[in-house]
Amino acid sequence: MAQVNLVRRHDLLANCSTHALSDLTNDTRDRKQRFQHSSSSPSKAKRRRSFLASFAGLLNGFLLFFTSNRATNVGHRWGRVQEEKAMGAVPQGPIEMSRFVAFVNERKKKRMLFKGEIMMLKKVAESHKSEYGLLNLKKNNYPDILPYDFNRVILHPLPHDPSSHYINASYIDSFFQPKAFIVTQAVKTKPACVDFWRMVWESKCEIVVMLTKVFDFMKVMCLQYWPLTELQYGDVTVQTVDAKTFAYFTIRQLKISRVENGVRVMRHLHHFHFTEWEVNGLPYVSALLDFRRRIQDAVHETTRNVPMIVHCSNGGGRSGVFLAIHANLDLAEEENVIDVYGYCRTLLNARQNILENLDQYIYIYDALAEAVQCDINPLTLDELRQRTSMYTTKQSRQALDAIYSQEYKFLTQLTPALRIGDCAGGHRLENRGKNRDVMVVPPDNSRPYLNTLHGESKDYTYINAVYVDGFKRKNEWIVTEWPKQHTIDSFWALVFDHNCHTVVNLTNDENLKVYPRFIHSRGRQAYGPFVVEVLSYQQYPYATSHIVKVVKKKIFDIPGKKKAKHNETNERQLTDQLDSLASILSELMVNNKASIHEVDARICNVISVRIWPAQHRVPLSTSGLIDVIKMARLWRKRAPDRPDTKPTVVISHNGVSRCGIFVAINILIDQIDIEQRVDVFHAAKIVRLNRPQLFDHREEYKYLNDLLIHYYMTSPEYHTEKLEPVVSNHA
After folding, report:
1. What is the pLDDT confidence band of residue 131, given thresholds at 50, 70 and 90?
2. Going from the N-terminus, what domains does the chain have, and what CATH number goes with each?
């Protein structure tokens, strides 16, 4: 066996270590040189970093696309599953009225269920031919809404006009009568107007329902196809006999005539025109239900086997919504059931696109639920008088209180709450200090905008005030709070900009720090860019009256000092003054020698109650409040420049309390004047539409009922609009 030379082995190991160390040193030197070389070449390093960053971005984008696409696919699949489940949950038949409201409330928790119904309706809708519609495209307002051939209205053809038999109109069945309705498009041309009246005459129609404005969004939606007095359309003569205008609709009585066999035949026609339904919106539910109730009253007076003509702009969505509500309320009246899904299927099988979107479909359910939940009908004057007898005994008063409590409960349940987004203007930082309560601000679509305070503040258009609809006119009232010290000029801007000739202040509070005076007793005073001059001042036991002239002055003007006549009169003197004031106010304005360059002026009566302390929910004297109501109504009719067509401002300390009572009682007075009946519940409901805080306590709603009865049972002189003289307490 060979011997290992340990010395030689040691030398070999040492030599290997030396070479390895040398190689390592050389490698390190090479790396350092390459690094220094790369450092001396920044463009290459930059390109390398750019490449790495691009690669990382592409990788990240791919990962995001993959994950998001996968999530989207999963979401789509999940959505389709939910839609299919919703489509399988459509009602299988009519729903009993006793459980309809609960059914709707439960379904509204899952909006997908409504979507499933309308998806199923479109899926099962039958397809029919529209060949005649395609052959007469010039007679159609919209190419996607044509009548089906099987149920189109066929007019008697005219000589030498082969297409005169065609009109874009469809017969639609009700639950109880075939061809109960004719749905058609709006009249937009003169030839279409002649065809429309031919259809009215040939169908023997007695009721026409119009659901579109004449103008909407600066566009002609429908020609005014009825005359102001009398006109002839083709061989049909149309005469307007009567027209009653309300806040949301107008009802006209027409006479139509035509010569047949040498004899002029005349018929009567009811024309119901809903004027507050915008193209892409939904109307106030209570207003549409009231509109439908009046139509139903007319139906009972007419021949029941002739069709009712219904039209909107395109003969589509709005007509379908109305018919679904109308037909189901008929069904509820006859059989105590409601079948929205079943009747909407009938509609879609009868006309193209007669239901346009999900919001319209949900609105049908909401309207029917409200009709079922609060089936509160107007009271005739006889019924109102019968209620007075219920105040004689404790038991009957308790029964009335129970009725009022239930109605007030419905009132609070059916008033939709305003969202913060609805009232964005009032919540803006620069406007928060203009509100007495940041939780009571007006919605932007229902507040009066100011324009004369330009440059005075960041948002010079804002004041905490809200429009309230009356019985006869939209925006008939403006409800606002007592102005703060720095918003008094905004208050007078409101009066000036919106031509308000009447202001009713329902609070008499002497705390000047909290409620600063915005009206003086005599002379002139400047409020921002306005000068207010008191022309006359009267004081009564229940109120004071300042008749003032509001003048807008130029920025460099200095208001002069001029004392106004100060006198105190009784009510008979006030009546005499109002008769003569209209003739002398113009002279006062012409002969006024003040050093103010009057750009424009307003005459306004500021009526302030004296019998309603701030700490009381109801006034100290109901008779005194009635006198205030009469005074305000009298001024609105007799003052110059027709102030009854201008909004009336109503003020309380917080813009909530008391205002609802005053506005609602005036609505009820107008209703009795025109219709000889009253609907207290819906008067209070319409008052709360733009300011849900009105009638913030049940006691106010109860007092409104008491005030109405007191007004008409103790004030028969109302019908002559005369004030009874009272003894004036001179201050």
Report:
1. very high
2. 95-373 (3.90.190.10), 384-718 (3.90.190.10)
